[in-house]
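Annex B. Sample input.
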Amino acid sequence: MFSNFIYFIIALITLTLYQPTPEPAFNPLEALAGFVGLTAFFAIYTRSRFLRLARRVGFESRYRLDHRFSSLMTRHCILALAVFAADIWLLDLPSYLQPFRVFSILPTLENLLFLLVFVGYLSIIWTYAYDAHNPIYQSDISRGTYVYSNIAFSVPILLPWALLFGISDLLLLLPFDLPKRILNSSIGQTAYFLIFLIVASVFAPVLIQRFWRCRPLESGHFRQRIEELCRRAGVQYADIVYWPIFGGRLITAGVMGLAARFRYILVTDALLHLLTPDEIDQVIAHEIGHVHRRHLLLYLLFFIGFMLISYATYPLSYILLFFFKPVLGFVLAYELNPATVLYTLSALLLLAGIIIYFRFIFGFFIRNFERQADLFVFRLFPSAQPLITTFGKIAANSGQPADKPNWHHFSIQERMDYLRRCEAAPVWIKRHDRKVRIGITAYIIGFIILAAGVFQLNQIALNQGGRYLSLTAIEDYLAKKAFQTPEDALLYGLIGNLHLERNNPAAAVSAYEKALALNPDLPDILNNLAWLLATAEDEALRNPRRALMLVRKAIALQKKPHIWDTLAEALYVNGHIREAIEAEQEALAMNPEDRKIYEDQLKKFREALGEE
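Annex B, continued. Sample output.
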């Protein structure tokens, strides 16, 4: 599940970074053919690789086959990400949903649709991996159960994300200005995320256990022992349920839920029928250890830390681009679009942050939390021998070597060895607890330092000095060129934007004019210049008639809500009030999320017409 979490985050980044092109490279039929072709290639290739592995059963050791199976799963999940990125970036599939208004009103719905496409690619992997999985691990579960169980493991990832952003979309649709102001500010977004994270951590287990098709453990010997153990440990819960994951064939248990009223203890059939009563007790004691040590609460802190890292990527990219001269020199020398480079740098930094953070920092804590939960057994029992024998049965039942490394768990052999060490010398229990405390303290200190650093990065990236440096560097580059090309129009457009941010409209107009002289068909630059000419306070800059001409050309090139809004303003200042109202209504229809802006404009136009 933890690996899937990283895959889904990368898929989300792929979606988030996508920018629709005015004219996709393929028509809808060609894009559909490309999608079907890529999917068919992926399915055929995946099937052939896992069938090839299945044929090696009986010719290689089980441990060697297990290693091959794990490596093949990882490689094909990465390939699934590559095919998914091709669907988004090369085939421009999201652009074909733009005519459907529901996707502009609820952008999370569009992202969810494409995430389900990614789930489909993973399902292809699981469908064909089954052909190798069952003979290698001597399993008798059905293909449907294997695939469904893998999909079910994705629910704790997809469900909170869909609710988080889906609710945000609905709040932005409300006819009130306050939700928009809150969600459009960085502080408001952070507060919303934290509140949602806490609420979801409390209530999500109710939905997740239903998606997993859990059912209450019936009254009897097993339930009585677990209930008695929970009473001894002082742990409250909502219910004890069967966990039918992978047909219940895995020897495993789990606990989820921060609040006792919504906490569930999960057990599988294999756990209850392949372990002795003493072994079952100690597995449950391990899960109780997670509750007592507040590991679930600490996981929330780690997700907040990841959010902080994600906030740092954009300002850090800005500083790398505009303050680190080799990077800026490379961008200018190869005439790259700085905005595209900035976006790409942010994506690469975020991807690196995900891998480093979850693989090493989160991985360190989750491994040591598991060991700490193992050691909690010594609080309830004089010996951990039943848990040690349980680990031996898990290794034998799974078909995996006991010393198989795992980034989010210590190997089974390491866990058994450490329990034996603590049995012989209990001082090792205190040493491990001290190690975890030091780790958490260091994390919190690092979190505070990082928070301060992110704030400083934002200040540096947003201050006038940073803008001035980027502006002068680009202007100097353009001034030194022997001749200028249409591609330089984008740089002049960036200069205009930077001058506009510095409240220097005359310089902005000059830069936009230079951009259009090099390339007269750039809709955003036409739009920006038209807005300035229509609204400038300086009478020397105002030119309503030319503003209307420019924005009419822009809307003919690209029908976007902000260009409709500029057209409406240009029509208004030229006295065409009724046409201005019609244009503003087009903007509102295309972008209801910014309803307040467009409705204020409509009110101004109607008042001028004498309707209000």
